[in-house]
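Deliverable D2.4 — example input (structure tokens):
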């Protein structure tokens, strides 16, 4: 499961679609509708929020917005909590750097044209659900 901290504009088609599907799975986990993935490390940042389902819903809304901008149609009716204002979640610059390097490796292999579009970006913007703060990679992150 990869729920990206980087802004969805940087994701290629495969990563955007996979992130949508994996975050929908995360939403099911947070709603108690599946027994699998309940201890997945990437869920910790949503589980730590006052309203985890609303937080993951806000994350999904931003993915759907990016899909709209690209002419894709993500089914927003699958988002459980919509149009709710939730606090942003801190993400460290160390986590962003780790994810940016990981994404760039993936883009080099499968979408070099997308990698070229972002060649000048050294510090990507975070997903709208996150606020950038100084620090090392997240404690829940596995080496990628």
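Example output (designed residues):
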């Amino acid at each position: 499961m990869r729920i990206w901290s980087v802004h969805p504009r940087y994701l290629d088609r495969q990563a955007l679609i996979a992130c949508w599907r994996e975050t929908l799975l995360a939403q099911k986990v947070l709603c108690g509708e599946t027994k699998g993935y309940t201890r997945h490390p990437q869920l910790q940042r949503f589980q730590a929020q006052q309203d985890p389902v609303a937080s993951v819903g806000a994350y999904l809304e931003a993915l759907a917005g990016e899909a709209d901008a690209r002419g894709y149609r993500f089914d927003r009716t699958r988002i459980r909590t919509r149009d709710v204002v939730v606090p942003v979640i801190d993400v460290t610059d160390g986590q962003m750097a780790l994810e940016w390097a990981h994404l760039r490796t993936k883009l080099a292999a499968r979408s070099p044209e997308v990698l070229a579009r972002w060649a000048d970006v050294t510090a990507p913007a975070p997903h709208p659900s996150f606020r950038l703060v100084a620090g090392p990679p997240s404690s829940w992150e596995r080496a990628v």
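The helical segments are 13-30, 44-47, 52-69, 93-110, 112-117.
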